[in-house]
Amino acid sequence: MKSERKSRNTKQKELILNVLKNMKTHPTIYELYSEITKIDNTIGQATIYRNIKKFVEEQIIYVIKTRNGIDRYDYYNKHIHFECLGCNKIYDIYDNEVFNVLEKRYINDNIQILNYNITLDGYCNKCQNTLFKNNNN
Ligand SMILES: [Zn+2]
Ligand SMILES: [Zn+2]
Prior knowledge:
Dna Ligase, domain 1, binds zinc ion, 2 domains, 17% strand, two-stranded antiparallel ribbon, Arc Repressor Mutant, subunit A, alpha+beta
């Protein structure tokens, strides 16, 4: 009975992590919750929120503090973010040239880098086209 329960907990954890991984949109906790319950509607909101909190404590996932104060979630997976000021979307940037500079700079400082918590601000392609279209005409 107990092991049955444990395996259900493990499955729920895996599902939560997989959904976050597959979404690739840096979801809010509510967006995560909506997506997870589409797959398994037996998972309660409290369970999801509790597990997310735990994953954050365990440094599996981390909170992105966005400009508009809404927390979004992401994996620890070395990359940089670009936050669009128009649509508030967060894009992932993988730039090995930048990463190499960071790794080389701190390699002798005996620190372990989990992520590059760097966010670039600006306007994405789509927003440049819609927001600034009238100015150009
Ligand atoms: Zn945009
Ligand atoms: Zn990201």
